């Protein structure tokens, strides 16, 4: 039986069951031309030599021998191909590898969907592809630059040890004479276009548009500081992932920005501040009281605008100090900003600024290979998601292997410490699981995952009295203890550092 007859038998309904593994191996989605595919064809020719004298697929012994030869050859090809992949390998080689050996890596055939069970990695392939405005060279260049920047953002949020994310926008005139704040590093994308009208009923979009107008039209003085809150909450945000799963924000983001001439420089800080702590910050910085149980939209709209010439707040670090004071006052003197990250680490990461994006040479090479591959391999629009997915799996595997080597910035680490010699460390199925379980702004993470100050049952809440005044009604969510007026003062002064009933403390 020739190889052509074997391929033709894939459409037969009467073929023996023992023949199905061979058919499956020779009729899966073909990868684009590569040395891996050519070597696989050589293995198929070996099967031809074994099957050449066969008169019928019922000859079990010879067909079984052929299957064994193919499987053995395919396994060797997989091992050899995997060993040859390195940081210097083009993205196309990784794509070809995954298309050819996805089964051996424990991945589904549609591996580019980045779906692990019912959980999808927090990167919107659909949204990214919508940024591609055309198939001309200039559109592709802009898209490649934007996507590389988004991949950098994905790494720093989902894979790095950092919780501070710097960003920059500057004024740019539009062809019609109007102007907007844009991100020059992101292909000139407007700040107002970085958020969706669907998020939080459109309130996020409204706030961003108001800040954009204020800066562009110079309605605020130079040095003015904006402070925004996006508290952790289990309610739907209005956003969904590509697979239809609702995106839920399980971390609190504190967003601080400062006007400098025609620019707006800012940082987003990932924290585990509770809604109660956000309410207290809002009260201190705006004078506004957000009632307990208020919708998240009320927090979104409670933007603080601070004049640096009045009061004690003149920098973004000063705003962080307020957050640190509120956390300490309401949480038994805790110095934690997010899990095991201290506020001191936040200050140091702010000082590093854009250097946080300076990955080590190997990580930069992965992202550089992606951008160059998009520009010079000329993959079709249908193939671009494979380039993105292969890059995400590459950076995720490097991060996973080096996770134990991560060090806090305060310990002197210059960047993300990626120290992995090659591609062959774990099955990519485990890498996909690892990154899919990480929650973030773009989704991802197990549905039941909750990321609070320590445990959600240990949240210290701050209630607001019915009169509208701030009432420091501090209680431990882990037991029935509730602070009286004297105990509340002791917590806020730092003399009471643990729950007097169950003993819990942030340390």
Q: Which features would summarize this protein structure in a list?
A:
507 residues; alpha+beta; seven-stranded antiparallel β-sheet; two-stranded antiparallel ribbon; globular
General description of the model:
Helix 7 (137-159) packs parallel to helix 14 and helix 13 (361-376) packs antiparallel against helix 14 (384-402). This protein has helices spanning 3-8, 20-27, 35-51, 60-84, 91-101, 125-130, 137-159, 203-216, 275-286, 296-301, 316-330, 343-352, 361-376, 384-402, 428-436, 485-493, and strands at residues 115-116, 119-120, 164-173, 179-183, 189-190, 225-230, 252-260, 263-271, 304-306, 336-338, 341-342, 460-464, 470-476. It is built from 16 helices and 13 strands. It has a seven-stranded antiparallel beta sheet with strand order 5-4-3-8-7-6-9. It has a two-stranded antiparallel sheet with strand order 1-2. A two-stranded antiparallel sheet has the order 10-11. Helices cover 41% and strands 13% of the residues. The radius of gyration is 28 Å and the shape is globular. With 507 residues, the chain is an alpha+beta fold.
